[in-house]
Amino acid sequence: MSRKYDITIGIECHVQLKTKTKLFSEVDNDARGKEPNSCVSPVDYALPGMLPRLNGEAVKLAIRAGAAMNAKINPESRFDRKHYFYPDSPKGYQITQFYHPIVGEGYIELPSGKKIRIENAHLEGDAGKLTHFDTYSLVDLNRVDTPLLEIVSMPDISSPEEARDYCKELWRNMIYAGVTNGDLYNGNMRFDVNISLKKPGDKKLGTRAEIKNLNSFRSIERAAAYEYERQSKLLDKGEKVVQETRGWSDATGVTTAQRNKEEAQDYRYMPEPDLPPLSLSREFIDTEYGKCPDLPADYRTRFAKMISVDTLEVLLDYPELAIRLAEIANSDQLMVDYIANLFASVLLAEENQSLLNDALPSASQLIELATMKSKNELSSTSAKEVFIKLFESKHASKTPSSLAKELNLIQENDSGALEAIVDAVLAKPETAKAQADYKAGQEKVLGFLVGQVMKESRGKANPSAVSAILQNKLK
Amino acid sequence: MKLANSTTTAVSLIKASLKRIEETNDWHIFTFVDKDAAIKKAEEIDAKIKKGEPVGRLAGVPYALKANFLSKHRPADASAKILTEFISPIDSTTAEKLEKEGAICVGCVNLDAFAHGSSTENSYYGPTKNSADRSRVAGGSSGGSAVAVALDCVQFATGSDTGGSIRQPASFNGVYGIKPTYGTISRYGVVAMASSLDVIGFFTKSASDLDLLMSITAGQDSKDQTTLPDFYGKDDTQLTKKCIGYVKEFMNSPALDPEIKSALESKLTSLHSMGYETVELSMPTLEYALAAYYIIQPAEVASNLSRYDGVRYGFRSGDLKATDNKTSIDLLFENTRSEGFMRENKRRIMIGNFVLSSGFYDAFFLKAAKARTLIINEFDKAFERVDAILSPVSPNPAFKLGEKVDDPVSMYLEDVMSVPVNLAGLPAVAFPAGKNKAGLPLGLQIIGPRRSDKNLIKITEELV
Questions:
Q1: Residue range of the domain that includes B91
Q2: Is A415-473 CATH 3.30.1240.10?
Q3: What are the chain A neighbours of B78 within 8 Å (beta carbons)?
Q4: How far away is chain B from the Cα of A257, in angstroms, using its nearest Cα?
Q5: pLDDT for A353-380, tens place per residue?
Q6: Is the N-terminal amide bond of A464 cis, ω within 30° of 0?
Q7: Do the chains contact at B299 and A85, CB–CB below 8 Å?
Q8: Which residues have CB under 8 Å from A260's CB, separation 6+?
């Protein structure tokens, strides 16, 4: 789609790290389903005399996330205080890494092959949650100082679709790296999209607006597209875009101004004197960097000749499927395509998605299933049935062949046995007319006869073998 | 220290302490007396002694906590209105260690609110008076601690020193005070003033008592990540040059009281006779210490005081009527802080936020941080030549109550010889050096390289 103006987009993403405890205290970091203000230590509550203690696990996850962005890790990083008064910030400041972030420059490679550069990523504490009512507000500090990694991209993104692709690929990389639960609905990753327009050929970037707190790929794309329309209308009329923060509403499909620059806060950044500089040895960095598992890009290379691009892109949203396919590829590459298609067309079908909560069948189960299918021991319908049943806990430990036998789904391939069944069917008076019609040139009726044989075999006959035998006999 | 044992009971020590506290009521030292709990703990210790059980290195010793040390059952409000009625759910690491050795806290003592001040006049509860002259200031911010020890209410008291808050009141009241190397004693559970400068220390009546308290409380604490690995009594910086320096710029300062100058000169003579070489040091960078200090300190103060907003604990303003321009949450912050902070607190918050604000950070905060580095380097260079530096604590003895209240700059100038030590994170011991003609105590300090705390105490012991 060609556009009148060039779009420039940079994205900041806040990733909640899945540490056991909070960034600066020893209380539970997982407040899901817990009472408000029940996961709060005196440190998070900002009592007098409390000092932050940096959670080493968060540092390790930040390094691993850095590896998932092909980024360099800074051996020395520091913490700073960012000040603002609001009841969601008990200390009156957020501890962040403004001047010396832990993760340096890196990049995310999109499926298209385009690289979006990362400027830096830094550790910081999350804020609490406020719920507003008519005459009062409630404060829940459970989320205070949940570790966040804020990932700042360079303004390398040039369309709403690309913004969506970047966010999705970043999300995938973070869940593959295992640094976050990645539950977008619950705010595990939140995106701020900075967008500006300029005339093609102009060197200078236009004035940008920032759309804050987006948490779905669809809303990122829609909001960016809306901003393009809004800003281009202003520019068409010769008006100026105001630098400001805007909010997006999924319901109305528009962005609205939240606060403009005149009211922008002065955060009075200052080095955090309660935390010494974070010095990491080369060895420590290398060890944690090395713990980053294979990423979507690795699987794309790996499966390039085995799985179609469209199917693969669908599967790559689920790291456990990619990992299973890689295990399968290690022992039998020929089975990968069939199993990938089972995943894509059966497992990810709307009606079966709940199976993703159950244990995935093992590589050896899947290979056996695919082998039975390729040897025509199972019809494709039966193979799907066995596949789905393997997710049930009562069947999970069975081999596909024993399960297929139990379900009476093994396909009859023995030609002698099949001929006997065909003969029996042809001997039946009710098939006489069809036989005559076929011999008279009406080839369509063959399907009816195959169906009769399948019925006689109670579904276990291999239909293509039956068809061949029938054709031969009715010559 | 006078310990409880088979002949002296802990109860008798505590009762004597409580009696003395009552007798010295006019000095306005204590903000809270913990009578019942102190006697109960003394009885427990006496029972243990009777049974022959171990009772610790401070058994039955009455002590006072500066009221910015948090305690589970004592009001530790840092003499600040905004923290009145706040009771902490935790104990400070320091108090925990002291109590474990059998020390008994008889109460909390006065300070300038949030330790902002050099006279204890900035306390919400009013000033503590000088032990030798009730018309004069106790010094500050740990004025209550110094006077409590000077007047024998307790055998020792805790303090915190950000720019001289232990050494200056110690010298105004003729007692010993230690400002340890930055990071020696955990700051956990002490209301923060300026985190990169704050240290925890003690007031005593002898150098050896300082050593005992340091050996009990020094050490790394996982709750304070700025604490150093354990070194006290294990990995101390040795002082072997047999050479003590004094700072030319301090000695020649027109602000220096002549009687303090001659007290220092007489100590230099004693050092000489003890076999030490004494040398004059030129340390021109120290001139910038006070300016750098009054940028870095207020910046950290402003930041550390941000948490007092009336939302979660402490004082909250009742005046929250929203207007057209102001939401009730803005009013909650503004009115709580306007009413809850003292004038000096607000002054420092204003200065601190100014030097951190966008456009001024580089010109002020960053510049001060660079000056701080130069000061550190100048001290390091001096310690290549000398073991330690002998210096006045402050240029003058205790001034009159009210004399400097309306002149904050002249009040700040009293810190000129104490703040360089905090900026550089060095240890210093303040010790009594006689009295002036008017009978006011005079004090000096000996400053050493980082982690020389124990050996500084040793030199002090030899010198006094």
A1: 1-237+245-260+390-464
A2: no
A3: 48
A4: 19
A5: 899 999 999 999 999 999 999 888 888 8
A6: no
A7: no
A8: A242, A243, A244, A245
